[in-house]
Amino acid sequence: MSVQLVKFLQTEQISENSFRGESRDLNTPQVYGGQVLGQAIHAAHMTVQQRVIHSTHAYFLRRGDFNEPIDYQVERSRDGGSFSARRVVAMQKGRPIFTLAASFQKPEEGLDYAEPFDMPPGPEEIEVPQATLDGIRRRSNILFDEAFTIRPVELPSDPKAPAVQFWIKTAEKLADNDALHCAALAYISDFGLLTSVGIPHGYRLREQAQKPKTRLMMASLDHAIWFHRPFRMDQWHLFFASPISTSGSRGLARGRVFNRAGQLIVTTAQEGLMRELSR
User: Fold this and answer.
1) What structural domains and CATH numbers belong to the chain?
2) Which of 96, 103, 169, 277 lies at a 20 to 30 A Cα distance from 88?
3) Would you name the residues annotated as active-site residues?
4) Would you give the DSSP letter of residue 44?
5) What residues are paired with 158 via a beta bridge?
6) DSSP secondary structure code for residue 29 in this structure
């Protein structure tokens, strides 16, 4: 349930600038990247007052061990009149496994524009067979304990416009806590991005048979998030991920998150390692 998700994403304060997050086995070889993203953002948020996060840039350095907790060291790089900067290093067994740079801003009004986007039917209009939802959960262990409600949106099979699209929200209402909602969105932002870069090469979650002699190994290298407008992750949001480039055994994808009104809430980008391996 979402209560367990909340506990999972929140970090425990050990000292003024030190925090600790618990890990969980999600049937993946290492700690899920969205967990470290979410917990690092929560830890950074804990050192800032009356400012909201507007961007993060992260690098995945080493595989995390889900049998061990993760320690987060926060450096208070700057507190200016309008902006605050934080640097977070995630540590396990005495070695850094992840770094995050985050910037926070004092809320203020300004010009408002977003690139137009054609919204699909709402989540209530989409009928998804239970077998399909069960299959998504089997393939994506990050949706543990049914913490999220998801409605995949079918897209036309257009090789010129490959993408992954789905509606998503937390299964239960979350507290009025910006750090928690940002952490929950960061957690889910690591799901679907790298999947999209495999589509132009014939790799799809439901069509693995297109590549019967190979499998695609993927691993996150870096991840950026820009928070544009206020949001609540316990309300429906549309996640749209599309590939930008694949080369040098790396793939780059962009993700956009929209609220029900079609407003752009978050933009995210991720580059990952992608290697074809013989079966």
Assistant:
1) 2-107+121-278 (2.40.160.210)
2) 169
3) 190, 220, 270
4) H
5) none
6) S
Element (H, E) at 7: helix 2-9
Percent composition of the chain: helix, strand, coil (DSSP 3-state, to 5): 20, 40, 40
CA 19/CA 214 separation, integer angstroms: 41
Tokens 């948020």 belong to residue: 45
| DSSP-assigned letters across all residues of 93-145 | TTEEEEEEEEEEE-----------------GGG----HHHHHHHHHH-TTSGG
| Sequence-distant (≥ 6) Cβ neighbours of residue 161 within 8 angstroms | 155, 242
At 91-130, the pLDDT tens digits run: 999 999 999 999 999 999 999 999 899 999 999 998 877 7
Q: What is the mean pLDDT of the chain?
A: 89
Interatomic CA distance for residues 216 and 200, integer angstroms: 13
Predicted confidence (pLDDT) per residue in 56-65, tens digit: 999 999 999 9
Measured distance CA(236)–CA(257) in Å, rounded: 10
